[in-house]
Amino acid sequence: MLSLKSLFNFHGKTAVVVLGGMFFIIMGISGITHPIMTWIGPKSIQFYPPKMTLTTDSLKAIPVILRTNNISNPTIIKIVPSEKEDFLQITEKKSATRRYFNLDTYGEIQGQDKLQAIWLARYYTGIRTPIRNISLQTEFDTAYPKINRLLPVYKIAFDAPNNPVTYIYTETNALAYLTDDLKIRCQKIFIHLHTFKWLDGIEWLRVMIIGIGVLSILGLGLSGIAILIKKRKGLGPLFSTRRLHRFLGYFVSFSLLFFAISGGYHLIYSTSTTPIFGMKQSEPLLLEPAHFSSDFSWIKPYRDKAVNSVSIVRGPQNEHFYRIGIAQKKRAHKNNFDGIPSEKNVIYTTISGHLYQDLSDLEMAQHLAKSFTSNKVEIGPTTKVKRFGVFYDFRNKRLPVYKVETNSKDNRSLYIDTVSGLLVDQVNRSGKWERFSFSFFHKWNFLRGPLGRNGRDIVMVAFVLSGIFLSLLGFLLMWRNKFKKRDTP
Fold this sequence. Notes:
This protein is an alpha+beta fold. Helices cover 41% and strands 19% of the residues. Helix 1 packs antiparallel against helix 6, helix 2 (14-40) crosses helix 6 (203-230) and helix 7 runs antiparallel to helix 9. It is elongated, with a radius of gyration of 27 Å. It starts with a helix and ends with a helix.
């Protein structure tokens, strides 16, 4: 059992105080930039993707376009809305730009992917000023970090105050990221001081420095809690520095441990395991124009419906289907970090012209999940994900998706986008524990239910600032003790 004297000796050691205190101050200040980016960064004015109206002529054009342009094995086929009319969008390779075809003339429209990105950037932001620069980005960087997941994206910089920049992912007509000069500065502070990205080329040194810092915080936190429990008297004057230090210790000690333990766990996990997430596309669609029926009588009940997606997907028995997503009605939206589903319901119709009422979106998700696993793996419970949460968060930027459980050895869960036939994300048993730890103990997402995102951020900032003040008081007490020892004969 440690004595009170030994606890005080350890808690007041210069090396422990300086390392633990300075490291928490660095982590605290850089961590606060994260909610600041949310508060002061640019905001989108649209939260729903653009809509369109389903027409018979649009569907009739698909086989003609495939035949006329010799397209035989596309990965994704969609009808998408654009600024003035709808187009057929073809994706043939994961890293390639999308191809677009006119639904009236059947010809390809060169450069439309870039024009589509520009239109979407203005649609989501409402910015009408000239564009300063536009480029296709195929790699992550400091301004558009890996956490955003989506590539390739169009980076569009507007000539406007604070230089707003949008990142557009045209495959889903999505705003992948929105930033400006101020947000980029905060992002650099966070990346370089919170994750020590400037040491990326020397990974062992980065891990060692962060590891020593985390252990120092844990040492200060645990010894401080032990002192709080053991010593309850002899604290000096009511408004003394020592009393204030002790009071703040009661207030923030456990939160510091939450940050340190979950951060250390995140560091160990991210450096010792190979990431399994990453988008995967289905095998190319093997389509022949002869497979398409010219009978579109089934479309009559849906002609006046607003839709936001019309795609062709491969379902059970290798049969191909039109997948039509009926658009969700717009409603007041307070927090885009929780996400909102873009579809109200889904219609499946075989391209041979038969309305396939027996095939549900959930069954399609299970079929697609099976195609992404080995034959030995069995598909388990499947649920529709309508909100971002602990295991499937805002980084993925797709809703709704389906969470498909499997009986694999690592208890893997798959997240399937039935619109494009994609495996959007996957997480195994160890990944679930890490995501839970990071979400609850590092990001305090358990507060989002009762307080909302902004309320949670305010509480976290208050605790972090209190922890920084606690560290500064600790430095002051340490230096006072040093001077007392010098003055003592």
